[in-house]
UniProtKB/TrEMBL annotation:
Family stated for the protein in its record: Belongs to the bacterial solute-binding protein 1 family.
Membrane-spanning ranges: none
Name under which the protein is recorded: Extracellular solute-binding protein
Region span, Disordered: 1-23
UniProt keyword terms in alphabetical order: Signal, Transport
Compartmental location: Cell envelope
Classification of source organism: Bacteria, Bacillati, Actinomycetota, Actinomycetes, Kitasatosporales
Keyword check for Cytoplasm: no
């Protein structure tokens, strides 16, 4: 892990760079593993914790022994997908009673949240708590985080965190990502560092047709040709670009610092690598061979949710977030009892195994207004200490399922959300802070087991790049430098542009600031050391 002081140092007020090593150690909370609940499958190789046993509501543990809230009012702005419920609904009331804080939600449309976030952070009227997902941290947002939000070190650094046991049980890697501008500012949502992109496939159809799960990119292409029968309206797959990146060992693209890595003494960015071009070329071959479902030729503008046609058997393989493994299973359980989805292990390329790169150990953060009084900060931390309760506790149950009888009912010992539960218990308290990454599906425990085992197998192959786990704020002048690459990738794999166009774009990127940005990252590496393993 990094050895030296931060770029700019933690006391210099620098808005750029990172904080790690000894400087981070002074700031980070003491880790105290939770002892209230033991997972059925403990985390290994960066996986989530897995719970596969029966959820006994009568035997739920208590992780918050006394109410820490002092009855104050705390306003929270957070992204919300769907129609927010009324503020006085039974879920919000029950949570506030448990915590001892009057939390008042200012939910904003998650699809346009970056615009609202920018406007609010530019104003003088900032709510007490603001949730910022990693994907909304472009432009001026990182520097606004540093100037607008409180240093939580006095409340959480070292042994101070022990006042909030559920926060103390959050993994240290997630707290490391919560350091912005030399101070502990974020309350994290921990994540597994194993890639969340899974090549999902129709296991039921594979078994019926006798298809073998491929173990290489060549095998995948051959299988895809075998599966595809356009006249019968059956294609092999969706756009497999994200799996290709993992198969060929392309550095992570969704989180900027992870796109950089030290290779043979030289700092390289993902778009400069042979692996990047090879992954695009292989994905282009799939489109050119006609094995990709026609809907995916439209790219991001596709009109329909691909899961519907996947469930209908129009194509048999596609990449999706690991959460879809469960989501698809649950949604098809009643209407298509033979439906079975599973996740392929990531297949290798060119005769070698895959080398997926680690994702960041936290990606969503809640921040507290720097002008908040100590009473408000303490009440905000009381909220976080409840929302970070582990699976198998009363606090987790209320946070994630709501009130029994109102928001969910028990069917054969499995909590099933009511319509009211589906309308009220979502997108709110879970955004403030979370326990260590957890996978648990009481209705389909075999899916949780399969997901965690997949993460553990893929985690054993996963590498960490030089900047893994660091929270890095790039100079604003470089913020939009790489913005056009995703569209160009999509155009290349669909045959609208050529690999040569990408090579030209990389050359332009270098001259427009890429090489200068490389020097900037090199300085960080020289001063902080590498996180790579």
């Amino acid at each position: 892990m990094p050895l030296l002081a931060a770029c700019g140092g933690s006391d210099s007020g620098s808005r750029e760079g990172t904080t790690s090593g000894k400087d981070a150690k002074k700031i980070l909370p003491t880790y105290v593993a939770g002892s209230v609940v033991t997972p059925d499958i403990p985390s290994k190789n960066g996986s989530s914790n897995g719970f596969t046993g029966k959820l006994d509501i009568a035997d739920l543990k208590t992780s918050v022994a006394k109410k820490l809230g002092k009855g104050g009012k705390v306003t929270v702005m957070s992204p919300f997908w769907g129609s927010p419920p009324k503020g006085s609904n039974p879920y919000y009331t029950a949570m506030n009673d448990l915590i001892g804080v009057d939390v008042q939600w200012q939910n904003q449309d998650g699809n346009t949240y970056d615009q609202k976030l920018g406007a609010v952070l530019a104003s003088s009227d900032v709510p007490d708590i603001v949730v910022v997902p990693g994907w909304n941290m472009g432009g001026k947002i990182p520097s606004a985080i540093i100037s607008k939000f409180a240093d939580l070190g006095p409340y959480l650094s070292g042994d101070e965190v022990k006042e909030y046991p559920n926060l103390a049980a959050i993994p240290t890697d997630a707290w490391q990502r919560s350091i912005f501008g030399g101070a502990l500012r974020g309350l994290p949502m921990p994540a597994s560092y194993v890639t969340n992109i899974v090549p999902l496939y129709r296991q039921d159809v594979f078994e019926k047709e006798g298809y073998e799960v491929p173990v290489s990119t060549d095998e995948f292409l051959a299988l895809a040709k075998d599966i595809t029968n356009a006249k019968a309206k059956v294609w092999a797959c969706g756009d497999m670009k994200w799996t290709a990146f993992n198969s060929f060992g392309v550095l992570s693209g969704s989180e900027k610092p992870l796109g950089w890595n030290l290779v043979d003494g030289k700092l390289v960015y993902r778009i400069e690598t042979e692996e990047y071009l090879e992954a695009l070329e292989w994905t282009r071959k799939l489109f050119a061979a006609g094995v990709v479902h026609p809907d995916f030729k439209l790219g991001k503008s596709q009109a329909t949710d691909p899961s519907t046609k996947f469930a209908a058997g129009e194509f048999l393989i596609y990449n999706n977030d690991i959460s879809s493994w469960y989501g698809l299973t649950a949604s098809q359980a009643t209407q298509n009892p033979d439906f079975k989805v599973s996740g392929m292990d990531i297949f290798g390329a060119g005769g070698s195994g895959p080398t997926p790169w680690a994702a960041q150990p936290a990606g969503i953060f809640a921040f507290i207004n720097k002008n908040a009084s100590e009473a408000v900060v303490r009440d905000a931390l009381a909220v976080a200490n409840v929302t970070a309760a582990p699976y198998g506790t009363k606090e987790y149950m209320l946070t994630n399922y709501g009130v029994e009888g109102t928001h969910y009912t028990l069917k054969d010992g499995v909590p099933v959300k009511t319509d009211q539960g589906n309308n009220e218990v979502l997108n709110a308290y879970v955004m403030i802070a979370s326990p260590a990454s957890t996978l648990a599906h009481p209705d389909f425990p075999d899916i949780a087991e399969a997901q965690v085992e997949w993460q553990q197998r893929m985690g054993a192959l996963t590498k960490k790049s030089s900047f893994w786990g660091m929270q890095i704020t790039e100079p604003a002048r470089y913020t939009n430098l790489s913005n056009d690459f995703e569209q160009l990738e999509d155009d290349i794999v669909r045959g609208r542009k050529k690999i040569g166009d990408m090579q030209q774009a990389v050359s332009d990127w270098k001259s427009k600031g890429g090489d200068k940005l490389r020097d900037w990252y090199r300085k960080i590496l020289d001063e902080n050391g590498s996180a790579a393993n």
